[in-house]
Structure formats: structure tokens, C-alpha cells
Amino acid sequence: MSTFQSVDDLKNKVAVIIGGNGAVGFATAQRLAKLGATCVLIGRNALEKGKEQLSQLPAGKHFCLNASITDSKTLIEAAKEVESRLGRCDILVNSAGFTKPVPAANLDDLTDELIDEVLKANFRGVFASIRAFQALLKSSGDGLVVNVSSIAGFTGVGSNLAYVAAKASLDIVSESLAKVLAPSIRVLCVSPGVVDSGFVPGRGGDFNDKTAATTPLKRIGTPDDVASAIEACATRLRFSTGTRIVVDGGRHL
Questions:
Q1: Of residues 137 and 209, which shows the higher confidence score?
Q2: Does a structural domain hold residue 5?
Q3: How many domains, the chain?
Q4: Rounded to an integer, what distance in angstroms lies between the CA atom of residue 194 and that of residue 248?
Q5: Cα separation of 77 and 129, whole Å?
Q6: Cα–Cα distance measured from residue 130 to residue 225, given in angstroms and rounded to the nearest whole number
Q7: Is residue 229 part of a domain?
Q8: Is 202 inside any structural domain?
Q9: Is the pTM of this model over 0.85?
Q10: Is 253 within a domain?
């Protein structure tokens, strides 16, 4: 069992990054691989998208796998493939998701179908990923799950109200999982504010500039800001579990 002391490198560790081809996921892979971790990038089209990304990582046994967060069978198959090829999983980062902007006051446009789609991707998919990899993480004895959440989960303000609900659910269930999976697996949430990543369709420079102007630290977040916090969860914040790390430049204040 881990003593939960800070570590300076992640050599011999395997990090599985769901949504690893996205801006935050790949920034995380770059940071963890630089510290010696072997990274597995998982996404719906990871094998096609990830070839160029893999070439940007330090030399190692990194690879990509196709799987969908909304298809649990593919996640289970991905976990089996990771076990077959690497024999372990020490870190699971859940950075995949989906949203669509709908003003909170526009109840009609937040359709049943969109609610289901948002909850399926941002809550059920994260839980399914943890479920699929739990055995590997537990056998590590020093497992870590980092869920990329959002300040929307505790401010009630986000791209739409279903997204707010999904992230609030993710936050509280992460607390529950931190209790039941301890001490062999730690569970943390990293909660960004607005990130310059193209994640929310239709948000451009004007939106980012206005948001930056009303944020205490006077800029929006970058993918590397989020990745840096995830790195800290793996290396420095090792006596932490069941809590959120807010990375928003003070946006929530």
C-alpha cells in the first residue's frame, strides 16, 4: 500500500486518459509522459487522431485505443487491452465529455434528448470508465482517478443546465467513490472554469475576452492549466482524495 508521499517522477506508472486526444487530455499526456509515465490515449477515433500526438510524446510504450464513453462494452475491451499490453493501470484521467450551449432561461431548447445526451457523456460515461478500470487501479495499490469536472457543478452556471447537473453529480459521486475505493484508489476532481479549448461549440474570441475581463486573474484557462493540476494530483497532492481542485483564475468568486 502507498504511503502517499510526494513523488518526483511517474516511472513505471501507466496513465490511461479517456478523451486523450482532446486539448486537456493531450496536455495531460504530455505532462505525465514527461515524468516517465506510459500513456494510453482513448477516444472514439483515437487510432486515427492520435498518430501525430504520439509522436510528440517522449519515447515510450504509449499507444491509442478506440472506445466510446457512451458504450461501456468498448471501455471494458479497452481495459482488457491495457492489461494485456501493459499489465497495469495506475492513473485514470476522465477528460472526455460533450456539451451544447443553451441559455439557462431557455427551457424549451433543453430537450429531453439533449438532457439524456449530456448526462450520458458527462456523468454516466465517467462512471462507466471508472467501473471498467477499477480492477486494474485496485491491483496497482496506488491507483488514482482524476475526473475533469467544472465549476458549473457548484456555481450552477454553465453551457446548459443539464451540463450543470452532470458535473454536480460527478462531484458528489466522486466523493462517494473516494470513500468506498480507499485506500487503494484515490479519487479527485479538477474543476476548470472557461478553458481555451474549443470544447463548447460557438464560443470564440469575443466570449473569451469578456470572460477574461471579469475573471480575477484576468485570463481564461489553458489546457495546460488543467493538466498541471492533474499532474499535481499524481505527484504532490497524494494525501488528498474525495475533493475538488478548482482551476479557474478565481472565476467562481
A1: 137
A2: no
A3: 1
A4: 7
A5: 11
A6: 24
A7: yes
A8: yes
A9: yes
A10: no
Which pLDDT belongs to residue 1? 65
Is residue 197 a contact partner of residue 223, using CB atoms and an 8 Å limit?
yes
| pLDDT per position as a tens digit, 169-190 | 999 999 999 999 999 999 999 9
Phi and psi of 159, rounded to 5°? -65, -30
Residue 163 identity (one-letter amino acid):
Y
Q: Which of 177, 191, 189, 190 is nearest to 133 (CA)?
A: 177
Question: Environment class of residue 83 by beta-carbon count within 10 Å: exposed (0-12), middle (13-18) or buried (19+)?
Answer: middle
pLDDT in tens, 145-175: 999 999 999 999 999 999 999 999 999 999 9
Instruction: Indicate which CATH number applies to the domain containing 229.
Output: 3.40.50.720
C-alpha grid cell, residue 104: 439557462
Determine the structural domain holding residue 102 and report its residue range: 14-245
Question: Where would I find the H helices in the chain?
Answer: 23-34, 46-55, 72-86, 112-119, 125-140, 152-155, 161-181, 205-213, 223-235
Between CA 192 and CA 222 the distance in angstroms is 9
